[in-house]
Amino acid sequence: MTPLLAAWHRYVLSEQVTPQVNGRSVLLGDHTHVVKDGGRMPSVVSLRETSETQQKPSYFRGQCWGALGLIVGSVRACFCLPLELRLHQGFVHRGEPAPANPASRATLGERMVEMALTFAYQHELLTWLVLDAFFASAKVFQIARSLWRLTDQQPYVHVLMRAKKNYVGYYPAPAKPPGRPGAQATYGDKVHLYECFDHRPLFESIECQVYGQSEIVQVMSENLLWRPLGDYVRFIWAVTSRGPIVLMSSDLTLSPATAIELYCLRTRIELMFSVLKTLL
Q1: Tens of pLDDT, residues 267-280
Q2: In the chain, N or C: fewer CB atoms in 10 Å?
Q3: For residue 59, what are the domain limits?
Q4: Closest of 245, 254, 275 to residue 67, by C-alpha
Q5: At what angle do helices 108-122 and 3-14 cross, to 10 degrees?
Q6: pLDDT by residue (tens digit) across 84-124?
Q7: For the chain, what is the domain count?
Q8: Cβ distance 70 to 26 under 8 Å?
Q9: Are residues 44 and 148 in the same domain?
Q10: In this structure, are 104 and 223 located in the same domain?
Q11: Do residues 214 and 111 share a domain?
Q12: Do the domain assignments include residue 114?
């Protein structure tokens, strides 16, 4: 980390304008693609635009920036303050050697959670990292759980993100009957996440803030085994005025109302990108 970046982090935290959610500050992470016309500019690669909020062609030449922002103000009236932006693609163009094994190359999701983990560890700060469905991978959960603050036995970073529509969870397998040969099974009944919306009697009604508006939301939560991770993940189902959504959290005690309000903050990073690109 450069001295200038470290000084910026210290200044932001010294102002004490970061709200706390369950004793943690809130970080937002995402990627933004910047179109570049220069043929020999560093880190300019061919990119595919998939975001619905960007007015770019499907394929173009540009740079991929990973951005980490901190929620400041209050949870209900907040702004995403940029903490750090790094190039996340095109390292070979800058003279950095490629790894011998391509499989060992860090993915975009891994680089994003590593940025958050470095910030939280250096400042001894417990944080939430809110991401979209692009980052929903086992590696992101593994890296987030890899570093704990020993004083209170909690991971520095808890991640919260939207689950993809084809994801499934598992209940733990029932105990093996005595005397049956073979090992104890790990995974029991399979749960197709988005099929759970067909069972509305299992949901309960709560009132929470959805994008700044108070409304009644149908929710359900369950800790299920997620096979790519090989461990438990908290899944939260919600039916809001904007449609159904399934969230995933590494915090197995997170309440549905808090999860929904946290995920609704993710749009603030899109406003941050707009300010950086258009206003500044």
Answers
A1: 999 999 988 888 87
A2: C
A3: 3-161+264-279
A4: 275
A5: 60
A6: 999 888 766 555 565 555 555 788 889 999 999 999 999 99
A7: 2
A8: yes
A9: yes
A10: no
A11: no
A12: yes
- Same domain? For 155 and 78 the reply is yes
Residue with tokens 């210290």: 10
The pLDDT score that the predictor gives to residue 181 is 86
Does residue 239 surpass a pLDDT of 80?
Answer: yes
Residue closest to 154 by CA, chosen among 228, 254, 53, 85? 254
Query: Does residue 258 lie within any of the structural domains?
Result: no
Please write down the HEC assignment for all residues of the chain: CCHHHHHHHHHHHHCCCCCCECCEEEEEEEEEEEECCCCCCCCCEEEECCCCCCCCCCEEEEEEEEEEEEEEECCCCEEEEEEEEEECCCCHHHCCCCCCCHHHCCCHHHHHHHHHHHHHHHCCCCEEEEECHHHCCHHHHHHHCCCEECCCCEECEEEEEECCCCCEEEEECCCCCCCCCCCCCCEEEEEEHHHHHHCHHHCEEEEEEECCEEEEEEEEEEEEEECCCCEEEEEEEEEECCEEEEEEECCCCCCHHHHHHHHHCCHHHHHHHHHHHHHC
183 and 146 inside one domain: no
Instruction: Tell whether 259 is covered by a domain.
Output: no
User: What share of the chain in percent tops pLDDT 70?
Assistant: 92
Same domain, 98 and 155: yes
pLDDT of 180 above 80:
yes
Q: What predicted TM-score, i.e. pTM, was given to this entire model?
A: 0.90
- Mark whether 124 and 179 lie in a shared domain: no
Q: Is 113 among the domain residues?
A: yes
Confidence at residue 103, expressed as pLDDT on a 0 to 100 scale: 56
